[in-house]
Amino acid sequence: MPVVTYRDALTQALREELQRDETVFLMGEEVAQYNGAYKVSKGLLDEFGPMRIVDTPITELGFAGVGVGAAMVGLRPIVEFMTWNFALLALDEVVNAAAKMLYMSGGQYKMPMVFRGPNGAALQLSAQHSQAWESWLAHIPGLKVCTPGTPADAKGLLKSAIRDDNPVVFLEGEMLYNTKGEVPEGEHIVPIGVAELKREGDHCSLITHGKMVLVAMKVADDLAKEGINIDVVDLRTVRPMDVDAIARSVQKTNRAVVLEEGWEICGMGSQVVDFIQRECFDDLDAPVLRVHQEDVPMPYAKNLERAAKPDAGKTVAAIKKVMYLD
Amino acid sequence: MKTESKQPTAAKEKQNAPAPDNRSGDNRSGDSRASGNGAGASAPPANIAGTTVEQRRELLRSMLLQRRFEERCAEAYALGKIGGFCHLYIGQEAISTGVMSMIRPDDYVITAYRDHGQALARGVSPRSVMAELFGRVDGCSGGKGGSMHLFDAKTNFLGGHGIVGGHVPIAAGVGFAIKYKRGNQVCVCFFGEAAVNIGAFHEALNMASLWNLPVIFIIENNRYGMGTAISRSTANEDVIIRAKGYRMDGESIDGQDVFAVRDCMARAIERARKEKRPTLVEMKTYRFMGHSMSDAVSGTYRTKDELEENMKRDPILLLHNKMFEAGELTEGEMHKMDDEAKAIAQDAWDFADASPEPPLEDLYKDVLADSTS
Ligand SMILES: Cc1ncc(C[n+]2csc(CCOP(=O)(O)OP(=O)(O)O)c2C)c(N)n1
What we know:
The structure holds two protein chains of two kinds. By secondary structure, chain A is α/β, with parallel strands linked by helices.
């Protein structure tokens, strides 16, 4: 299987879906002539022309709304946000329009569209540019929220998202674009709402998604050297969430740690823990612990940023704690 | 904060400058607490004669400092001493310099992420700016903000802001507070031409005009928002026309000419202080570097030829030439001023390098204010 970057995997998905369906188009800041701020749309303008690869002004609210309107009357827009920090300006169209259109029109207007772009922190971009939004977006009925952590999942989920008749929020990562992995050529579909067990072990379940999948894999490697074998459950989609996959793993290991990039309060982990206490109450041998960003805006200074972010060391410590090894 | 052994800001030399003539509105070196006069009664002419020789030297010094300082920023970025996004101001210095030379210490300044030049021109200490860029505790934002978020309450520098257009309504809010408190300050707000397409810009202009707020909105039109030329993003490239839509005075000027910047500011300041009216100003300029340190200087979106053509109108060169032609600056003096600017930049670097990282306790500090209630 070819090894490609997360970025190229996304480009493949975009190209294949643009070829497959004429109603699919991509719009956003710098997506066309500049080949994308993070080069995800490289070469697409040349191949598909300016009607389908559309550079927008810096007007997030406006072009997200343009996407909603186009979706109401038969197109399948892919709206790219340069990063999800800027999508805050467009949340009205995402939350108040796209997410509710089908429901409030009594089923008459579906919203076959994707809102995508990098989410979460990169390096030293500080407070306004380093935020993981998945729990905000997953809160909204009417949206689906994908958080691929590997190139193969990025491709397979993006293809599913574009074909879905619902508004799909698609969260990528600046720090993921250059990561590499095996990606099937051509038709490769990952269904929305299905988790994947990325590593198997009996001692503890590590449940995560998005960029933290890479951290989780490192944690699994590090712990394996000490003879601790863990399940890594990659949710891949946080809404809908694959509760069965979580339950299967925790019922086997009887211990769980939930790792996420965002903040603690009302974070994704809160929801995972809620599912666990409902589905696995009698299976648990220890309280479930969570690893997440410290409860502060992201600081700029290197040492403070490092301290603020969740990482492998904090995750290993949490796993040892739920195993009563510390 | 460490105490600084030497104050390297341009402000220091200003103390020795002769009192500015009333028309210039530059009372940073004179009576900074001027109460009602503001920019003075009449606008100075758009030429070198509207300033004293010492003022012109001061303008040149400020621009040189910004240039040399940012050249060191590029170097520090390459060395990994500065991280994240770093947007250089090189090429646009006549705007920061001209504007700051006209406003008072008690006026307010707010800007976007391309904020180093404006901070230095405003008189934020170069040491504290460099320390911020290095992510150190002595930085003007305590090492927490970085390049895009320089703040300095001492100079009423209300920050660099990272979301395009997000700070434009904030400027209107500052104007609202000035009016509320019956002050006669102005708030100066800088942003790029690409920001005029964002809703916040329009909402802010409407309120500022509707409520007669003393705000000067400055569009620094460097023709590109990242890699997008204004012609590809903006239905009417004549951005100043937008002032009309909000019944606001608007003026478009050559932002490479520091005297044109000052003249235009004199009018806008007078309007703000006397009539409590906002102004929209377009200052035409050009950025000589890439959008940020991680972007190409030229390439698909602008040609090298275009860049070189525009670099002939380097604002420092233009001012230097004028002074040189007027016989008030020798090449030797120019070199000396340049060396001084380099020395200040070096001093800022050394200071930043020696400043410690913020202590880990700072991570949780200032999330919320200590509330007295
Ligand atoms: C709302 C929002 N969208 C996108 C961005 C990413 N971005 C940062 S600067 C920039 C270009 C802005 O250009 P302009 O306003 O002309 O200012 P300049 O950078 O030229 O000084 C873009 C698209 C952002 N910071 N905020």
